[in-house]
Amino acid sequence: MAERFDVGVVGAGYVGLVTGACMAHIGHTVTCVDKNEGRIENLKRGKLPIYEPQLGEMIARNRKRIRFSTELHPLVREADIVFIAVDTPPGDDGAADLSNVAAVARGIGRSLSEVERERPLIVVNKSTVPVGSGDYVSMLIQEGAEEGPNGEVSYRVVSNPEFLREGSAVYDSLFPDRIVLGAEDREALHTMRELYRPIIEQSFATELDPRPTVAVPFVTTDLASAEMIKYAANAFLATKISFANEIANICERVGADVKSVTAGIGLDHRIGPRFLDAGIGWGGSCFPKDVRALMATAREHEYEPAILAAAVSVNERQRRLVITKLQRDLHTLKGKRVALLGLSFKPNTDDLREAPSLSIARILESRGARVVGYDPVAGKRAAALMPEMKVVFDPYEALKGANAAVLVTEWEELRNLDLERAATLMARPRLLVDGRNAIEPAAARAAGLIYQGFGRE
Ligand code: UDX
């Protein structure tokens, strides 16, 4: 029988809620704390602040083991383990802004100095923090404690980076490829292993099949290496995509098809087939931020990160390529109607952070095009962010009278667009720029559209 723990999660945002729901699902008792009262009230009523498939159901199903609160103090008194899962937005120089993490760490220190505990509190860093932050958090907890009545407090800091993807966060957290833990204290690592045991052994009850039958690898290391693993993983994946985009751009010039090329190289186990989809490039809340933060860290230490800089520059170029492709058949953009299909940075999320759709819409607007956007879930939010763009709630409405359409985000319903209907609704020259290589070129052409993909001319 696995041990049950009292788990606290500070930050009821994306990572915090998924972590909390997952911990409750595997049998622990969870308290999610957030300083935003409105958010906590909504959560108590079952209303989530984010869109994420299966998260609402998972919270509802484990509701008896999850509490929502705005108070940190009781959590520090009662919890065995506290996760810090607050956001670390990028500052002007690209480096992660740690002020939210710092405020929580100080708060934990202050509360610790006011309570009696039998065991040291394990404080787990789940937020993506720069390498070296584990020690910084530790120092801040101590500083916070010194402001309270009893400066002698006992705690252990652990780094536990998360690798979950938006849109499949619940699945990723229950069936991870690996669990990474960094700490200087062996006992804290042992407790964390017990906490994760149901996941490591895949022994929890679930209806979320298919589930892996093998045990989940568990990597233990020092604090700095655990922090670095998170950055290195995201930077590698972003670079892998930029590499595929570079190959696509070369394919286009030599008459090769990047889809066949990446399928061919992906079968080499050393390369692997995933994250080789060429197109508009990467966006979202993690890749852009983490790559920039890693570059900032490198430069702080007087190292010029050449490969990372190239990955970023290729990614920026991919967005501008959409404009070049549109101009090839539209000639001028002025007065042309362009439909953007899919606005969120990727399918199955309403997240618009660093979404290519927004920067493409801005360039198009600045060149005098009329932009109409459609997204199955992010439409309203996009309209609020970009009042210049007309947002409609039906893809065919967006296509009506459009001279060109850009498939920006490969939502399932957009992959399966009725191409003939699209061609009938659109105006000349009926150009489809497929930013995700998600549509069969032959089918698009047969329907009467001009088709342009990425790296598959
Ligand atoms: C990513 C990491 O995958 C995850 O491990 C980490 O915890 C957070 O960052 P996420 O940002 O949710 O997750 O999205 P992901 O599915 O990784 O896609 C990132 C971006 O890359 C998207 O804009 C996507 O459209 C793009 N992408 C992905 C490609 O352009 N080509 C690909 O082959 C794969």
3D architecture notes:
The active site is at 286 (nucleophile). GO terms for molecular function: NAD binding; UDP-glucose 6-dehydrogenase activity. Belongs to the UDP-glucose/GDP-mannose dehydrogenase family. 48% of the residues are buried. This protein has two domains: 6-221, 3-Layer(aba) Sandwich (Rossmann fold), CATH 3.40.50; 310-452, NAD(P)-binding Rossmann-like Domain (Rossmann fold, 3-Layer(aba) Sandwich). The N and C termini lie far apart (58 Å). Helix 1 (14-25) crosses helix 3, helix 9 (223-254) runs parallel beside helix 12 and helix 12 (306-330) packs across helix 13. The radius of gyration is 24 Å and the shape is elongated. The model has no long low-confidence stretch (mean pLDDT 94). The longest helix has 32 residues, at 223-254. 44% of the residues lie in helices and 13% in strands. It contains 18 helices and 14 strands. Uridine-5'-diphosphate-xylopyranose binds at residues 162-166, 234, 237, 241, 275-277, 279, 281-284, 286-287, 345-346.
Give me some keywords for this one.
457 residues, alpha/beta, Rossmann fold, 6-stranded parallel beta sheet, 18 helices, elongated, binds uridine-5'-diphosphate-xylopyranose, UDP-Glc/GDP-Man_DH_C_sf
